[in-house]
Each structure stands twice: as structure tokens, then as C-alpha cells.
Amino acid sequence: MRSLLFIALIGCQSGFGEVDLPESPPDQLSDLDLISVDAEGQLVLNDRVSPYYLNTPLFSDYAFKQRHIYVPNGKRAVPDPRWTYDFPAGSAILKTFLVAPDLREPDVDQRRVETRVLVRRDSDWVAWPYIWDEDGQDASYAPSGDTIPMSVIDRDGSERPFTYLVPQKNQCQECHEIEDLSTGEKGIVPIGPTMRNLDGLHDGTDQLEHLVSQGLFEPPTPDRPTPAIHWSATRDTDWTTVDDDTLDRVARDYLDVNCAHCHNERAVNGKTSQLFLSWDNDDRFRLGVCKKPGSAAKGTGGRTWDIMPGAPDESIMYYRMETDDIGSMMPDIGRSLVHNEGLALIGEWIRRMDDAPCEGSD
Amino acid sequence: MRHIAPLLLSLAACSNPTFSENRCADIESTSCVEVDPADTTQDLLDIVNSVESGATVILGAGTFSMENQVTFRGADNIALIGQGMDATNLDFGAMEVQANGVDAIGDDFLIQDLTITDAPKDGLRVEDSEGVTIRRVRATWTNENDPTNGGYGLYPVRVSKVLIEDSEAFNASDAGIYVGQCIDAVVRRNTAKKNVAGLEIENTQYADVYENIVQDNTGGLVVFDLPGNPVIGRDVKIHNNTITDNNRANFAPGGTVAQIPAGTGTFALASRRVEITGNTYANNNTGDVALLSGLVIDGNPEKWAIPNADLIGDTAGLMLDEGDGVTMNFRTSEVYIHGNTHSGSGKKPDNSDMNAREIGFLLAVAYSGQDVDNVLYDSIGESSFDAEDASLNSNDHHICVNSDVGSFSSMDLENLAARPVPLAKYMYRPDAPFAPFDCDSFTEGPLVMPTFLDE
Asked: Quick one: pLDDT band at residue B19, thresholds 50, 70, 90?
């Protein structure tokens, strides 16, 4: 039992489905009154809580994720053409991570490991990590996170042991913190729920329309951006058979979701590295083409350029994805295993690049 | 501090050997908590992840065996204080997840009196903050010459007003002390040994670097800009340091630092307004001081182009190259070298890898048994060069080398790289004074040094 350091201020229900989220994290996740678990182990949702799905999800050591949004009654999240929805004060976003021992039968023996909670307060977001109890009935507030030895049998049947990281509270900011470029103020933001990454059919329903009809979202903006690719439907593609434009689009969506939360011009590490992997960055140099890293240290794997066009095996970006060396991997946090499917995609994308080869000392 | 449960508070008594040097009782802080190494590291991380602005965390004497990094975010004016570099050890050697040792973002962050051991990535990384003090902190790795060691020992990056003093860095596979993209830095009385690069000042504006001991690294104390970075370095004063015996074989696993020849004392690369004075240079086998164009590490000027709108800090009056809406900072200019001592260096340039460390190899060939001159200038970008006649050498970049350096060479490095015969035709090795490099001041006046310590 971990030390209970925090005084729980339990939100009281002020109406059906309406929850006043507390200023401080309660000891138990269920005390947020947003999600709970019934006797059969199934999640039970508050009426104002909706599940949502991302077209391209972040890879997290083959964990499965259940995502939920809560928006207070009478309020709606407002879309932004570039960034995530602007959620009204009192909203919350929950992401629950589940692992299965054998990815060939992913529905068998799934268990919940952690739930990461983002709470929208009046002027900022706060991030609270919860770790699920052994019996899977509730999760406890865990500001220090955890490191958990695990093993998974992948879809090829290989046993892959790894250490699963439940990020400590302050590690949330490593991915979720950006700077407001006009004010210089830093703050926590959500990453996933952008218009383009929500826009599509999920469970046969147009997700954005569904969230509008639920009363959670404002309608999409007229300049609705091209939706991100549905990764689960495309991940097993033989990328060598795909046309250049499609390959580029899928690869850029993959990099956007898996890298650009840090590697963008508003994030701490993006600013330090000047490597921008957002889907809409059209500066080839700052996309990594013939760019030398500033301070990658051993993360270069002895290679010179972030991307050497045509040559994944000479590209630091590819090395950072193919290695599981602690101290060299990317993303910086939240990955211990190699994402084979993503690696194949980015490898083919670099192989097909027709930019001029990098010149200079090597 | 309301969030900390009483059971975690060790009530300090003067007789308690665990808190013999620093105690909450002696510290003015809105909240202070002491952590005993006998507590679990989970307890320590619970506290670290619960502190609010103004808090002090005091670590007792002993070793904390960490399973995750010590992360500070979202709070300012945080202090992390141990009982001394030889007493309190944050040991990350058993960590199974990828992380730094101590990783902090927060204004007015203070870290003091402790050691950080075997971090998988950087020992201490402080980023994007203002007013950071690193005092008596040692970052070290257990194994010498190990390319799997973490990259940087003490690494403030994009910090303004940073003080690093009386600290130590050993065995980093990149740089022991790395001041990156900072504005206003004071780096003094530190020791950097057995790293690939001892002490680096990168893309930094207004740095006062003095009384450091930089020994037994591959390269000693170096100043440079990297291409494409919006913080254009300027006003770096390197004085009264000891930069000796930096002859360790390069063990970097890659990166630009892998190009540093063993035996390098100091280089200034893509740098401007740099003063090097009062230092002791000795027994650096490749050479003591080299002034190099950034084009040596990346020959494409376009890579050095920074959109003018992105530039950070004051670039007025600097000798920079202009393009269409961009500024380029590959040129090294406005360097003044005087009043140092030189002895026993340049006797065996690193010729171990003619590709990875081409300059070492070139110097070995060019000097072929003679001592390499104490100060070298690559003359890249100069409008004229001649091996014999002083009047046929330009000093467009205003490089000032005092007679007291003893020996100086300006080299036509671009042509020398093709290894023509005779090499001497591409080396200008004047007797003192080294006209036209015998100037003794900066065009735009003395360097501007940080004043935040006086405020």
C-alpha cells in the first residue's frame, strides 16, 4: 500500500452526471465519479463521460488504451484547426492502459495497469496518475509512478520481456507541456483529441458528429483538416507496395502522433533540438533531412544525420526507433519495446526519400 | 508543507549523522522536507512529485538507489540539497527505464551538495528555466572510457542566469559540463575529468568561465555554435582555467563530439567575441587552442541559416553572414587570446582516425614531428592568405593573438585538407608579433559579462 500523501477532496455530485472535479487528486480513481468498475469487471461510465478513439494512437509498448472524455453539462469543447480541442473548465480526459499477455489473443486476460487523468481547471490543466489495484476494481493515486517488469508475446509469437513505466506525475509534463509562444507561459495540454485525429468512423459512427450530438463538442470548423490515417487498419501493410503519397501521409501521421508532442515548435524538447515532426511541418531540414542533432550524445548510434534520404540504416531517426538501448531510444519516455510495425513504416519512408544525399563530414 | 505526511519527516537533531551538513531547521523555506536514504525511493519520488513552489527537499547522507528519474516540473524556487558530494549519492545504475538522473524545469532551481551516479542519459538536466544554481554537485559514471555511459554530466540547456560552481563531472560519453543555449552563465571552480569533452559552452550568450580544472579529457574546454540554432553565441570569457593533459582517447559513441581529436585543449568554433586569457595550458598533445569555422563541422552554409524572426537575444554588431531573411553564424570572429601560459603541448597530434578526426590527422601530417603551434587559426573565409608575407594575409574576422602565446599558425585549411605537397605552402607561421593578427581588443568594445550574481 503506497503512502497516502494527499488529502482527498471528494467531488460531490451536483446533478445527474454532473461532477465537480476536486482541486487535489482523490486517493481512489472511482472518487472522481467519472468511471468505475462493476462486479463483472466492466467499466461503468458517468452519463456525461464518452469513450473516444484516435485514428493514429501513440505506441506504448503494445498496451491497449481506453480513452474517455468528460465535459460538464451545458458546456462544449471547441475545435481548433491545428491543436487539440479547447475544453471548458471542469472537463477531464482519462486514458486507461491495459496489457494482455499474448498479442495473438489480445482480448484474453487483459488487465488494467494505470489510468492517466487530465483535469481542466479554470486556467490550466493538471495531470494525475493512478495505478490499478491487483483486483482491478479501482485505481489508487500514484504520484511517484512505478516501474513494473512485464513480458508480452508479440503477434509473431516472440516473448518480449520489458519494464513498463508508469510515469511519475512530473513526467506527464515531458510530453504534455507546451509554451504559449505569445506569452511565454508554460502549461499542460492534452495531446490526442485533435480534430484530425478524432475525425472518422469509429464503431460505424462518425465520431465528431457523435460527440457533437452527445453535447460534448462544438461542431467541427469549416476548414476541417485532412483526417489522420486509421493506424489499426493499415499497420500490417507491406509498405513497399504503397504509392509515395500514401506512404508519406501515413508516415507523417505516425511521426506526428509518436514524436511531435515533443518535437514541435511549442514544446521544450522541440525547441531545444529544433527538430519538428508535426504533420504540417514543411521545412525539410527541421524535419530531420540532413540535419545533425544538437545534443543527441549516444542517441546517434554513431550516425551523422537525423535522416539520410534513401538510407534508414544511416539515419539517426531510424536508429532511435530500432534500438531498445536505455539512453538512446525515442520516444524519450513510455517505450521499452521496439514498435516493429512503426519501424517498418518509417524505414520504407526514409528509403523512398528523394532529397539530395547529405553532404559534409561524416 | 501540507502535502507531506508526518511519517516521512525525520525530525532533525544536531546529533543526527544522516543530516549533519544540511537540515531543514537551518533553512529558510516556505516548506522543507528531509528524506532519509532509509526511506524508500518511492517515498522520495512521492515527495518530489508533490512539492509546490518554494519547497526545499533535503536528502540525508547515504545512497538512494533510484528506479526512475528525479523529476521536477511545474514549481519554481525548488531546492534539492544533499549532505555533500561525498555523502549523498543518487544512484541510477539499476534503473531499467530510459531517463536522466535529475531532470528539472523550474525557475530559481537550486541543486547542491550531492552526487549523481550512472544515469542512463544525462546526470543533471535543467531545461528552459531562469535562475538556476548548481553548486557542489558531482555527476559521474562508474566505468571509465565507456561509450554506453550517459551523454552529459551537468547539462543546463536553454537556461538564463545559470551558475555552476564547485561541481565535478567524470566519465561522460559526451560532455562533462555542457552549458547549452544559455543566456548569462557563470561557470567557475569546477572540475571536469575523464570525459570526452570536459567543459562545453554551446550557443551561449554572455558566459564567464573561470578557475575550472579541466584535465584528462579527450578535449578540454571548448566553445561552439551548432548549425540551425537560434541562440547565436557571443561574449564568452575563458580565463584562469587549468586546461592540461587532455589526451584521453575519444570514446564517444557518435555525434559531433566524436570528431574531437584527443589532445585538444580548447577550440572556438562558429564563435564570436571570445576572450581566452590567464589560462594554464600544458601537455595537450594535439594542441592548445584552435579557432575554427563552423564550416569544418557542416560545410553547407544553408544549414547555418536561421530565420531572422527566430533569433534569440542581441545580435547587433556581431560579424555574421546575412542571407534572404536569414542570418548565418558559421564564421568565427572577434577572438582575443592573450596572457595564457603554454607548455609541453602539440607533441603528438591524434592521428588515430583520418576520417572521424581529420584535423588531428592533418596536424600530425602537417607538423610531422615538430610541435604544433600553440594557437591555430583555420583562416576559412578570409579574403587572402599567404604562407610567407604578412601583408598578403587578411584579418577580416578580427582574430587577435598576442605575442605571449609563443607560437601561432594561420592555416589554409581548405587547401591543406587535400594534403598537397609541400604542406608548408598552406601554413602561415609568423614570428611574433603575429601581424596581421596582432590586434589587442574587440571591435565593439570589451566583452559583456553576466551581472546576475551582483543583483
From this structure: very high
